[in-house]
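Obj: model holo form, ligand = zinc ion.
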Amino acid sequence: MGSSYNQSVSILVQGIVQGVGFRPFVYREAKRHGIVGYVINTPDGVRIEAQGAHCTAFMDALQKNLPERARIDSFVIAKREPMDCREFEIRESIEGEGNIAIPLDTALCPACQEEMDDPHNRRYRYPFINCTDCGPRYTILQIPPYDRVRTSMKNFTMCSACEAEYTDPASRRYHAEPISCPQCGPQLKFLDNRGKAIAGDPIELAVSLLKAGKIIALKGLGGFHLMCNATDDAALGELRRRKHRKGKPLAVMFSTLEQLETYAEITDDERSLITGAVKPIVIVKAKAGSNLSPQVAPLIDRLGVFLPYTPLHRLIFERIDFPLIATSANVSDEPILIRTDEIVNRLGTVVDGILSHDRTIVNALDDSVVQIAQGKVVMLRMGRGFAPHTIALPNSLSGSILAVGAHQKSAVALGVKQNMILSGHIGDLGSVEADSYFERSIQTFKRFYDSEPSLYISDLHPTYSSTRYALTQKRGHDTLQHHYAHILACMAEFTLNEKVLGFAYDGTGYGDDGNLWGGEVLIADTHSYERIGCLKPFALLGGDKAIKEPRRIALSLLFESYTLEEVMELKSPTTEAFLPHEIRTLHHMWVKKLNSPMSSSMGRLFDAVASLGGFIQSLDYEGQGGMIMESFVDESMMEPFEFSVLNGEIDLSGMVKHIIVLASATDSKRIIASRLIATVEAIIRFFATMHPELPIVIGGGVFQNHALMSRLYRSFGSSRFYAQRQTPINDGGIALGQLYYEIHNTKEKNER
Ligand code: ZN
Ligand code: ZN
Ligand code: FE
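Output (holo structure tokens):
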């Protein structure tokens, strides 16, 4: 091919290619390779029309040297007519039907950080500095494609200096849509808890409250944080009291990696996540003996840590030397709040002041929460930087399908054209505010992807707000069993279509037989499942009360194995947590099956073991039993307890009896916690050995347990073993599983 030969091609790039500096990158590569033509954002992706002698090298470079946050899902090349042009340019976007991955929010980049620290730079100490590599994206976007006029930055007119950068292809801020400076951009303001503006330097006012042990609300990328001094017992006590949040761990933001590492032991994998382009909350091992208040994460040795990810965070840390609690500003586990007036109205009694600004958050998005087990990411909450998450399908769908998810950790998923799109974490449903926010999220999704779903799919549970919402849509409506959906969520992430051996272990979900499931072994494909195993069901004495008080579940397990008289004589932390007449009353309840729903839930079994082993008798939040036990797991004690399987029912009465004996031993907690994890692994191995030909797929909240996941990755490797990494392994992934099912089972499927 001679150098004078001119090739003309048309390229369509799909994936995460908008708002990640992709077009400027294409521009630079075009210049470098002597290419003429143009690049343009279209509703179908980024289109590049290119002509020149080095088209092949140009296209190679495009796929090789991608900007850090960009991701190419498809790169389709077609020959085209020669063009008559001399330059390469970036053209205005074409609006229209959306079918693209949404650009994701990104933490402050090193180049911008350097600029804001430079007294000679015009953005010195500027709280809204950003560039094509960093800053807000999805959270300020009203509708795609991603251009300034369709973001909340449209209210700010660029000054001439900003405009010059925005239009200069050689600038780092060429088409940086949220570009601004102190002359033309958003303004900070400080308000009291009744919403009255306070005169003075907003940052100085916020810092002085934090130093005085007060609580502030601070506007971040996807919502407000509540912040206070993480080393101050009194401040934390006050935050917990005002928020009615007793023991649930709180995330901590550190000023620098160095500071963070004095409080936590982190691995190289964890370090690169913590310092990477997203800066999610990473759950890591806490160092003992630090000056962090014990109220940050009571009774557990893990800690949610993250680094400042907006320029505003950095400006706060410039003036304080202690780490900050940075927890989502919400009421209990409802969606995160995004407007100053919501903070005043709903959290006015919680905060002492509000640091806000006038760049509107269009789409709420919580911080993402992840952990790493054996080098693999486990997504616990998918939010800022990761959501919405798109998975490409092999075939195009003819209609569109909306999956509405479960009830806690709500998220929705949309199937449209060749994509499955999972929303970010919405929050727990069940309150007026949460449910209306859930409906707004669905409206946003419909608008973003310009689609009106013709089919809805929800959980089997009849009273979930999400199920009821789907029913009111007067469209096609299917329901799907919760634990099957957990397995399908993992299959969707890996686009598995074959038969799998699935283990769905979680709190409780509605079973096909009306019982509370949660320790299920399924053989499943994308069309149906067979329940080949489950924990032998046990009674939850008092229903919801048992979920808050593990001692009630443990007691019912004791009743399964001993007579009432024997139970009364037992030396066990469980029986000691009751008065004798309470045990008799509960026994009566157990015999008569009064208010005692049956459950096969692994999460509830963990809770029962937490009671029997003397870890905890009454919970502040769901999953606490497992989290406390996790810190006692010792790799040198991994011997499974005895169990038997009869007709698929897993009987753990041998374990219960063994724990009664062990509970009085020294070191009992380490032994019990370790052997419980080993037992779960042994149960999985038992079924896996019976079905050696099937891939192992797992899902459900129990797998949020770090010790368990590390153990499973170590013993099963990753050849036959599948666990979600990019989408939430808990109920946050249910919508994806529902969607995957509907895509494979609707008659409207396009078979081409
Ligand atoms: Zn930047
Ligand atoms: Zn400006
Ligand atoms: Fe679940």
